[in-house]
């Protein structure tokens, strides 16, 4: 990035008459950027976030710092209401939530965390825009302007990302394959199935290494082979990152219209087009996988019914990803006027595609048996604003710190699930990132 966009924002900041300002003020200028993650990687301001929805031609966002941060949905809702009452610009908030707020999560990731970024770099089909967000209604104007100047002063030019080197790792799976088989046996026991027809069990694969990869270089490579997926990265502190390319949407909201999906039921990709189609047809006709998908969409319909005036479900179809294919059904709803993102985020996650059915008894089983912390894996990540929101379920992800990469995968265990088949499915789900790490 050239220095002129930063100078342009400095000039706008210097000439801003803040006395009459209310709410969020956004100063923006066009800019040139070749590699959003190459830009993010060079910055010294935290938190650092990256977000791109899976829609074709979706806007890319890279953000730095925080004007405001919220560690509860109630606080975020109150702020959205306050900003709407003031009028003026309605900003985008970015962030995520853990899978289970009632268990200890990852050390530096709160159970819920959404922020209004200080700096926002946005790339769309028409070019790129660098923006500076300010807020005057509840803080000292001179301090706010000083913080904004300090953030602009700290901005660095983008550089090419470092190359990914195949690294040496020690691998440990939690649970072990033996423990996994025992869990699957418990879930598929007839008495347990009567009470809980589906439990999504997960595995943490720990790759210990003296030199973990650069998270932005890894995400950039992963993204290039993950079309039809969301792409996200977050560093709340310099020593830790959470990145991913999830295929699953939690929901997309445009005004009162909501889209969500039942994404459950999995098979691998074929060696050629003929075998691939045969596997897809087999998946759609398979009793166990159809049941798994049905568990998901029935619970979603039940959750959406009290929030909506109208709910429609589409036909089952196959989504093809790089290493696996899934059954998907789209669901459309018209929300009641009183329904907010707070209502949706309080009721929809964790979805039955990552938790189970019924939710409470499935969660009880997971809490009793899983020894690893899911943290933000199988939680939520995305963008929220007054007019529209877009959020993904955080699967197909990696949690990276200074000595370890943690990969996560889950499988829906229902009647007919076989432990060895489900274990192989877990390996299929981490195959993409393992190959990027030189381990595939």
From TrEMBL:
One of its GO terms (molecular function) is isochorismate synthase activity. It is an enzyme of class 5 (isomerase). Mg(2+) binds at residues 292, 425. Pfam families: Chorismate_bind. One of its GO terms (biological process) is menaquinone biosynthetic process. Residues 194-429 form the Chorismate-utilising enzyme C-terminal domain. The active site is at 198 (proton acceptor), 248 (proton donor). It catalyses: chorismate = isochorismate. Keywords: Isomerase, Magnesium, Menaquinone biosynthesis, Metal-binding. Its EC number is 5.4.4.2. Pathway: Quinol/quinone metabolism; menaquinone biosynthesis; Quinol/quinone metabolism; 1,4-dihydroxy-2-naphthoate biosynthesis; 1,4-dihydroxy-2-naphthoate from chorismate: step 1/7. Its cofactor is Mg(2+). InterPro entries: ADC_synthase (IPR005801), Chorismate_C (IPR015890), IsoChor_synthase (IPR004561), MenF (IPR034681). Belongs to the isochorismate synthase family. Catalyzes the conversion of chorismate to isochorismate. This is Isochorismate synthase MenF. The gene is menF.
């Amino acid at each position: 990035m050239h220095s002129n966009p930063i100078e342009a924002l400095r000039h706008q900041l210097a000439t801003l008459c803040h006395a009459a300002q209310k709410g969020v003020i956004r100063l923006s200028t066009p800019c040139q950027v070749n590699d959003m993650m190459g830009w993010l990687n060079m910055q010294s301001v935290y938190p650092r976030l990256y977000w791109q929805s899976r829609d074709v031609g979706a806007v890319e966002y890279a953000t730095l710092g925080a004007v405001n941060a919220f560690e509860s949905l109630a606080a975020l809702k109150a702020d959205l209401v306050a900003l709407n009452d003031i009028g003026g610009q309605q900003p985008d908030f970015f962030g995520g939530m853990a899978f289970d707020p009632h268990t200890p999560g990852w050390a530096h990731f709160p159970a819920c965390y959404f922020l209004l970024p200080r700096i926002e770099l946005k790339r769309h089909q028409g070019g790129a825009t660098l923006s500076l967000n300010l807020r005057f209604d509840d803080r000292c104007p001179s301090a706010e302007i000083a913080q904004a100047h300090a953030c602009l002063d700290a901005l660095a030019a983008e550089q090419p990302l470092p190359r990914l080197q195949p690294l040496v790792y020690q691998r440990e799976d939690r649970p072990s394959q033996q423990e996994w088989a025992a869990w699957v046996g418990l879930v598929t026991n007839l008495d347990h199935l009567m009470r809980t027809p589906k439990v999504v069990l997960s595995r943490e694969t720990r790759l210990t290494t003296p030199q973990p990869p650069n998270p932005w270089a890894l995400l950039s490579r992963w993204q290039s082979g993950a079309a039809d997926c969301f792409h996200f990265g977050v560093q709340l502190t310099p020593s830790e990152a959470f990145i991913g390319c999830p295929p699953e949407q939690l929901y997309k909201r445009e005004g009162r219209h909501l889209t969500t999906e039942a994404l459950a039921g999995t098979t691998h990709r074929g060696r050629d087009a003929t075998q691939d189609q045969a596997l897809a047809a087999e998946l759609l006709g398979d009793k166990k996988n159809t049941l798994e998908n049905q568990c998901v969409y029935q619970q979603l319909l039940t959750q959406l019914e009290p929030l909506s005036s109208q709910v429609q479900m589409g036909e089952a179809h196959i989504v093809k990803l790089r290493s696996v294919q899934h059954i998907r059904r789209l669901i459309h709803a018209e929300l009641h006027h009183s329904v907010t993102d707070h209502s949706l985020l309080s009721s929809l996650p964790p979805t039955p595609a990552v938790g189970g059915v019924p939710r409470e008894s499935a969660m009880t089983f997971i809490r009793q048996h899983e020894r690893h912390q899911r943290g933000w894996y199988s939680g939520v990540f995305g963008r929220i604003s007054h007019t529209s929101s877009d959020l993904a379920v955080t699967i197909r992800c990696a949690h990276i710190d200074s000595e370890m990469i943690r990969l996560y995968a889950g499988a829906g265990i229902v009647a007919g699930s076989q432990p060895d088949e489900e274990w192989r499915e877990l390996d299929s789900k981490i195959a993409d990132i393992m190959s990027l790490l030189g381990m595939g």
